[in-house]
């Protein structure tokens, strides 16, 4: 017969096996969406290098700084999504190794901004990582029943 604590340990282990997969999928989606920045970089390169015809005596070329704005926006978009993707992928590995619980919670909050899948994974990560039994697996001491007030006393 399985005791309640053994059952909870089994549930915690299963949830901690599934959470990294969710974060890895979110990271892969972010890498895929970061490629949208290539579109802006391509526009910038076209604006900078395309020949423009002169019609009616006035040049139809866009201002030179416009191409650099598009390139900078595309690069920033790619770097931003790439950084968040790297953090989500790292979170998956950290959860597997039972390390950096606080960082995993912070990145779970960031993941909640990726509607709808990131919100689902982020909320589920909060539900799992905030359990006292899971905190113990990460090496975090359990809080007393009365909360932080009893620690200070």
Features:
153 residues, mainly alpha, two-stranded antiparallel sheet, 2 strands
Number of strands: 2
User: N-to-C SSE series?
Assistant: HHEEHHHHH
Number of domains: 1
Cα(first) to Cα(last) distance is: 40 Å
As an assembly, this protein is single chain
Tally of separate helices: 7
Largest sheet: 2 strands, antiparallel
- Overall shape: it is elongated
Task: Please state the CA-atom Rg, rounded to the nearest Å.
Answer: 24 Å
**Can you give the mean pLDDT?**
89
Poorly predicted regions are none
| Class from secondary-structure proportions | mainly alpha
Helix content: over 70%
Report the β-strand fraction as a percent range: under 5%
Give the strand order of the largest sheet, numbering strands 1, 2, ... along the chain.
Answer: 1-2
Descriptive account of the structure:
By secondary structure, the protein is mainly α. The chain has one domain. Helices cover 75% and strands 3% of the residues. It contains seven helices and two strands; from the N terminus they run H-H-E-E-H-H-H-H-H. The protein has helices at residues 4-34, 36-49, 64-97, 101-111, 117-129, 132-137, 148-152; strands spanning 54-55, 58-59. A two-stranded antiparallel ribbon has the order 1-2. A hairpin with a 2-residue loop joins strand 1 and strand 2. Helix 4 runs antiparallel to helix 5. The two termini are 40 Å apart. The model has no long low-confidence stretch (mean pLDDT 89).
């Amino acid at each position: 017969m399985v005791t309640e604590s053994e059952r909870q340990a089994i549930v915690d282990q299963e949830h901690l096996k599934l959470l990294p997969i969710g974060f890895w999928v979110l990271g892969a989606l972010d890498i895929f969406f970061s490629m949208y920045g290539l579109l802006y970089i391509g526009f910038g390169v076209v604006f900078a290098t395309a020949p423009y015809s002169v019609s009616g005596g006035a040049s139809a070329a866009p201002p030179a700084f416009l191409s650099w704005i598009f390139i900078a926006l595309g690069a920033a978009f790619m770097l931003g999504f790439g950084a968040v993707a790297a953090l989500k992928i790292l979170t998956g590995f950290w959860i597997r190794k039972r390390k950096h619980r606080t960082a995993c919670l912070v990145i779970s909050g960031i993941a909640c901004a990726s509607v709808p899948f990131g919100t689902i994974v982020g909320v589920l990560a909060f539900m799992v990582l905030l359990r006292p039994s899971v905190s113990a697996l990460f090496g975090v001491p359990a809080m007393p029943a009365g909360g932080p007030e009893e620690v200070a006393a």
